[in-house]
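Structure, all two chains, one model.
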Amino acid sequence: MYVAVKGGERAILNSHELIAETRRGDTSVPEVSTWQISEQLGLAVDRVMAEGSLYDRDLAALAIKQAQGDLVEAIFLLRAYRTTLPRLAVSLPVDTAEMLVRRRVSAAYKDIPGGQVLGPTYDYTHRLLDFALAAEEGVGDPEAPVGETPLEEGMPHVADILDYEGLIEPEVPAEDADEPFDLTREPMSFPADRDQRLQNLARGDEGFVLALGYSTQRGFGGTHPFAGEIRMGEVSIEIVPEELGFAIDIGDVVVSECHMINQFEGSAERPPQFTRGYGLSFGHNERKVMAMALVDRALRAREFGEEARYPAEDEEFVLYHADNVEAAGFVSHLKLPHYVDFQAELGLIRKLRREFEERQQKDAAE
Amino acid sequence: MSALEEVRWDAAYNFAYLDEQTKRMIRRALLKAIAVPGYQVPFGGREMPLAYGWGTGGIQVTASVIGPDDTLKVIDQGADDTTNAVSIRRFFSRVAGVDTTEATEEADIIQTRHRIPEAPLREGQVLVYQVPQPEPLRQLEPRETETRKMHGYAEYGLMHVRLYEDIARYGHIATTYSYPVMVNGRYLMSPSPIPKFDNPKMQDNPAIQLFGAGREKRIYAIPPYASVKSLDFDDHPFEVQTWDEACALCGAQNSYLDEVVLDDRGGKMFVCSDTHFCADRRAEGHRGELGGDPAALAFARTAEEEGADR
């Protein structure tokens, strides 16, 4: 009925009540706690923190609970909260070479200084449903064996090993490296520098970035990547308070990082050398950082004088459409009433059809 | 306001939700926008607790210009009681504690989506438009880098060609809403998706017209009494929609009408899209052809009762 479309305050409030009831589900089933979400749905929490641009496991778990597990909705909740927070300090750049590694693999070399560390990964699990997880009595207290020797401290990046030989493009800080672009404070601008692009990709929707990265592998672009290195673990965050004048450690965050090593043919000015694609994300988000590194390299086409021909190489296309809070909002706004404009289109289509029929009749008469 | 005065808004938030620095940044963008009518000013749009596409730009603009003593009206599709208008009004009642109204003439600020009120605005009023896509050329050129150049050079031939193609194909311009306008003889501007019926109201309007696009992070404006001309050709002058019918409730013949489907056999009635305008006319004793019909009045009453709930 039309009245339902008109809605009103009462309908909105009732819908809030209904969603609360639906969220709770069958009350004979125990309510899930945010602690359980944080501990046992950790990868969902990681994704929400990464795309929500806020490192807070408790709040991300709360957002997931509030959104009934809809991660894009949870990301929106976290973003909306984040924007109300004051900015107390800006950290120093994080040194991922000093990471307390939980996982670190390279596909480019068989063995690397510091070693290959498989860590917690689903990669070599067989994707068979584990019915033990559904058992009433639960899984008990699973415990992994501790390695015989501790990991080496300080694991150099594989890219740095290539850099030492001059085989990969050197990493040169941008001229304005002191003040990286901040999409949360400034509107997007083009042409976009790499800092803006990387921030956009880090906040970008995992599915969108994944599909774009995949498209470059399938031929819509071609960067011939090798997974130089993927690592995940804790890094220290340091700030320099003005009144102290030196850096202090304010805590650790878990991040995932990927260095892609890509082919480059060289040019008249530049010798043939490998080029870099980079991905970094809060939490354990390996799929995301690998895809991000592919897209980062694809978006550097201009820098290497390559023709940007494919979607993943087109920075306006990628950057404007990567954010799922923006995308979900704009797609869902089609649910809002549009009947004023629809009325205008109704009037037009009736007029066009009338004119069409008049023409047909006139043609038939002739 | 004095420190002794009671804080009427949710004290967990700054007045009108945004922090003062953000409001200042938005006001600077607004001043620039008013100084260069029709020019899209990029601004550091913030993430709001409402979804992009649901009025985040308009909300940020309203939040930046509203004061505790202002009276706010919010409409969507011309109606005060559509769900999103209710939702946005609730938002400002909560975070700004301002008085709200449905009466166009009583409002200091009117936030709107898709309509300009039928009642003429006056000096001192501010009309805030919610804008989904600020770029009038976007459907013709998807790239921002290109459209900014086109505005820079005032190179709007592409839009004229598009309108001409309509004429070549249909014999008339077939754009019914978001009909492009030229502001102050310089910038091509999207009026937001208002029906072209409303375009003439923008011209020489005594009120300040502000446009906020949250997702696209652009602000633009029309200062009072500015020239806002809908694009047309000498031999195909701009025309607005007309109806053969009058409003079934209030009998108005000069307002924008919505078609209300009454059954699945083609039965329908036409009613004013501007609910306040229609209610005012009925209060003055005007009646449309269904003005005494219990079913039609039930429709109008439902809308009014929803309003009374607030």
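DSSP finds eight helices and twelve strands in chain B.
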